[in-house]
Design brief:
homodimer, mainly alpha, Multidrug-efflux Transporter Regulator, Chain: A, Domain 2, 2 domains, DNA-binding
Chain lengths: 150, 150
DNA sequence: CCTTGCCTTGAAGTACACATGAAGGTTTAT
DNA sequence: ATAAACCTTCATGTGTACTTCAAGGCAAGG
């Protein structure tokens, strides 16, 4: 598959695919005799993975490190694990910030008056109130929590 | 409180606070007789709110729109709600992307071999497997879900 | 043969979100 | 009274993540 087809398949521009290759976010792509990129499904999946991580807010630099750790199947497992766990912590914090903003917005949508300037204390109260609402609406599912941290 | 104190209190640089004011992410700040910004707690809370949303990956432009919607307590409630719901959908998708990446990473940390190039089908399988692990580890808390969507 | 349509590399341009610098004003301390 | 330590505005610089441009190569069709 040429780069244009890959671009159409992934929604990532040809230029961006070239850029990702140059930045080692995706592996070196095989070339045809005349030097054109010949992209297979492995590359497509990598591109999709990169897109997902970028959408989640990870920088190119961090993503490159992260991918190198994934790719390295050898030695220094301890350091690797530590680095991956750092990365994980960053991502979880980001997710929690997002969740907090989502709660904020959901509350606004339900109540519809200004509460943007609440303190963190008040925010927690709002979240509890929102959790109650969700519990009422969803009847029983009152989790609201992300408990998969180590 | 002057801008330096506000900066120290929020962890946001003075330059960024000025920038936020110029971009209407925070309201116009009162000045002293000599023209210096006099920042109160209302502004501090706004700055913190902006920081949170920025950390969650919202652009300045979207954040400005979002804040204008919050600030406008008048008329066209229907349009406002629609726009807020759009914003909410974007944020939820972002959160889900992040969660998917987190699951991916957690799985890697537990298994520690390369599975970055799995298809979406396989990823779902991994997530189920990971959910099972979490259920085992946390003994009973098998939520893993974000069920607060409307 | 020449246009169309794909591709290549390398360089330069762009948008966003600030950071930094210049030039100057005010209060406080020595 | 002169320096230190704040402040102001306005302009310009910076890093990131691409996009766009320039110059050219290869293959098919009219």
């Amino acid at each position: 598959m040429n780069i244009k087809e890959a671009s159409e398949k992934t929604g990532v521009s040809s230029a961006a695919i070239r850029y990702y290759e140059k930045e080692s976010l995706i592996p070196a792509i095989d070339r045809t005799e005349v030097g054109n990129r010949d992209i297979d499904d492995r590359i497509i999946r990598r591109i999709r993975f990169v897109t997902q991580m970028r959408a989640a807010g990870m920088s190119i630099e961090n993503l490159r490190r992260y991918i190198q750790l994934f790719d390295a199947q050898e030695d220094n497992t301890k350091e690797q694990k530590a680095l991956l766990q750092e990365q994980l912590a960053v991502m979880e914090e980001k997710r929690d910030d997002l969740q907090s903003a989502i709660d904020h917005l959901n509350y606004k949508l339900n109540h519809f008056y200004d509460h943007m300037e609440t303190t963190e204390e008040e925010l927690r109260a709002l979240e509890r109130e929102h959790a109650d609402q969700v519990a009422q609406q969803d009847d029983g599912k009152a989790s609201d929590g992300f408990d998969m941290n180590d």
